[in-house]
Specification:
single chain; 243 residues; alpha/beta; Rossmann fold; 5-stranded parallel sheet; binds flavin-adenine dinucleotide
């Protein structure tokens, strides 16, 4: 463990799969162990590229956001959605404990400033939650004095990733506010609808917040349009597109 303050330029790592767990029908959480004595320093929100082997060709490099907090330095976790016919996500989903995987990182600038100027709102759908699992845990570990909102949308009841973790944090951390919403619920009695339609309902003083959005581009574009309609300045809107 470290305070997660240090960062280094990107590097190549030979990792081993330590565990692979189903989070939902289409998502796994994979923990990769670094070689003994190696540590990786990164900022919450950064991603790695994994090398997907291809017969007779160079490996395919695919980006995945780091889903574990920077305080964990001898291993890291990814949260990967299985895309139908997807080469890289298919590769990750067939990994087994002990498999070797080459990884390059950390990369990317989708990170938080060292001192938050105002409250933050994280908005995600599906595996877009990955960088926010790292950021939220990092902020709470550092005992931020700002409010941290998470507005997380999914389709079905069993699609919510890390649900128990989020609910536990929301019950123990008074400045962490959790809002889950489902677009096609079955037995769910909580909020229903898309994330974009929930901003006005859940976020107080919404022009005074910084927004971080992550997931697929259709969701991000519609949330950005909504925030502009609500007169949130562009300088307070940050995003990472997966496609
Ligand atoms: C900076 C960055 C970080 C990323 N982090 C993550 C992450 O943490 N977890 C993750 O699952 N993916 C993440 N992605 C997406 C990932 O890089 C791949 O694009 C994705 O796994 C599909 O690759 P594939 O080879 O399986 O599919 P391909 O054969 O390349 O097919 C791509 C298709 O998959 C769609 N797609 C891409 N991502 C998703 C998704 N998450 N859910 C549903 N459809 C998708 C695209 O719209 C496109 O139509 C990230 C992308 C970027 C650029």
């Amino acid at each position: 463990m470290s305070t997660g303050q240090r960062t280094r330029p990107f590097e190549m790592y030979e990792t081993r799969v330590e565990s692979i767990d189903n989070l939902s029908p289409r998502n796994v959480n994979v923990r990769f162990q670094l070689p003994q004595g190696k540590e990786k320093y990164f900022k919450a929100g950064q991603f790695v590229q994994i090398f997907v082997p291809r017969e007779g060709d160079k490996p395919r490099r695919t980006a995945y956001s780091i889903a574990s907090p920077p305080q964990l330095t001898d291993s890291f976790e990814l949260c990967v959605t299985r895309v139908d016919g997807g080469v890289s996500s298919g590769y990750v989903h067939q990994l087994k404990k002990g498999d070797k995987v080459t990884v390059l990182g950390p990369l990317g600038r989708f990170t938080l400033p060292d001192n938050l100027p105002r409250d933050v709102v994280f908005i995600a759908t599906g595996s877009g939650i990955a960088p926010f699992r790292s950021m939220v845990n990092d902020l709470l570990y550092k005992e931020t004095d700002k409010n941290v909102y998470l507005l997380y949308g999914n389709r079905h009841d069993d699609d919510i990733l890390y649900q128990k973790e989020w609910e536990k944090l929301a019950s123990t951390e008074k400045n962490f506010k959790l809002y889950l919403t489902l677009s096609q619920p079955k037995n769910w009695t909580g909020p229903k609808g898309y994330v974009g339609s929930k901003i006005e309902e859940f976020i107080p003083n919404l022009k005074e917040k910084d927004y971080y959005i992550c997931g697929l581009s259709t969701m991000i574009d519609s949330v950005k349009d909504k925030l502009r309609e609500l007169e949130v300045p562009d300088s307070q809107i940050h995003f990472e597109k997966y496609d």
